[in-house]
Amino acid sequence: MTRTKAAASASSDVDAVTDAVLTASRLLVAISARSISAVEETITLPQFRLLVVLHNRGPLKHAALAEQLGVNPSTVTRMVDRLTSVGMVQRRASPTSRREVVVDLTVEGRRVVRQVTARRRKEIAAIVAKMPSSARQGLVEVLAAFAEAGGEPPASTALDAI
Questions:
Q1: Cα separation, 86 vs 84, whole angstroms
Q2: Cα distances (angstroms) measured from residue 157 to each of 51, 79, 111, 129
Q3: DSSP state letters, 95-141
Q4: Could you tell me which residues are beta bridge partners of residue 92?
Q5: Which of 68, 119, 137, 160 stands the most exposed, by the fewest C-beta atoms within 10 Å?
Q6: Which of 126, 127, 133, 121 is nearest to 158 (CA)?
Q7: pLDDT value of residue 71
Q8: Element (H or E) spanning 93, and its range?
Q9: Do 28 and 155 contact (CB within 8 A), yes or no?
Q10: What's the pLDDT at 157?
């Protein structure tokens, strides 16, 4: 195969995989949204993502939380205000410096993350069970490589979270 044909083939392969991932991501986002609204109607998908980050990483300063979420610190402040008002997160003095404030999950926030994750796992498992076993065989390896390339921790440590 010539270099030009190889490059064109690789490009179309990337396009085909990208299209497949985009299609699957629509399904996964829909599952996530349904799972959140079934457990807790007062929070949004981005707010849930904030809860998941805190669940996985522990207490964080606003700036570190904004970096993890890929948003502006002012956005995190508004999200934290909202989640504080519904009792899912709390602000407290940092254990390393009393001048710094960290955001942490409350017991209620942890409960919501666990329940939403359990609902998502159940719905995803039902979909995977409908797939032919031959199609499932390589899925774990492919999805693990995809998540690793994107910097997402494995579900076993990330609680299957969004």
A1: 5
A2: 15, 24, 17, 23
A3: SS-TTSEEEEE-HHHHHHHHHHHHHHHHHHHHHHHHS-HHHHTTHHH
A4: 102
A5: 137
A6: 121
A7: 96
A8: strand 89-93
A9: no
A10: 46
Query: What pLDDT is attached to residue 6?
Result: 53
* Terminal C-alpha separation, the chain: 41
Q: How far, in Å, CA of 66 to CA of 49, rounded? A: 11
Tokens of 151: 């910097």
Token pair in block for residue 54: 């805190």
127-133 long-range contacts (CB < 8 A, ≥24 apart) are 127/27
CA-wise closest residue to 37 among 108, 96, 102, 115: 115
Comparing C-alpha atoms, which of 101, 135, 9, 113 is closest to residue 55? Answer: 113
- Nearest-angstrom CA–CA distance, 115 and 120: 9
Spatial distance between the Cα atoms of 162 and 158, rounded to a whole number of angstroms: 9
Q: What is the mean pLDDT of each run of 10 residues along the chain (162 residues)?
A: 55 84 92 92 93 94 94 96 97 86 96 95 94 87 87 63 48
